[in-house]
Amino acid sequence: MRAFAFVLFLCLPSLAAAEQPQYNPYTKRYEYAPKGATLKYNPYRQQRELAGPNETLQYNNYTKRREYAPEGAMPRYNPYTKQRELVGPD
Questions:
Q1: SS3 at position 22
Q2: Rounded CA gap, 56 and 70, in Å?
Q3: Domains in the chain: boundaries
Q4: Which of 34, 12, 38, 36 is closest to 85 using CA atoms?
Q5: CA end-to-end distance (rounded Å), the chain
Q6: Pairing relation of β-strands 56-60 and 38-42?
Q7: Structural contact between residues 50 and 39, judged by C-beta atoms closer than 8 angstroms
Q8: Alpha-carbon distance 46 to 43, whole Å?
């Protein structure tokens, strides 16, 4: 039990710094996006997505779609959409 508490204590700072899901009123879902994200039109999905100022369209191997993401983005599981979304490095 102490080991679990210690590991949890070590992980808390990294969890706090991670991007938090934000609500997208166009898709009516939560998406990972940096603070201050704006809605950008994705011509591949023909809908608006939350995207940061330096994000570009990148291919996600898990969803087989193009998504807005920063350079060096890696897929991360989003429990709200139950999919892996491209999220920038921490």
A1: strand
A2: 6
A3: 20-87
A4: 34
A5: 28
A6: unpaired
A7: yes
A8: 5
**What's at 42, amino acid-wise?**
N
Whether the Cβ atoms of residue 24 and residue 50 lie closer than 8 Å to each other: yes
CA distance 74 to 44: 20
CB-based contacts of 58, cutoff 8 Å, min separation 6: 66, 67, 68, 69, 73, 86
pLDDT tens per residue, range 26-85: 888 887 777 788 888 989 888 888 888 888 898 988 888 888 888 888 888 989 888 888
Instruction: Look up tokens 């950008």; give the residue.
Output: 40
Go through the chain and tell me how many residues it has. 90
Residue for token digits 């998504």? 67
pTM for the model stands at 0.55
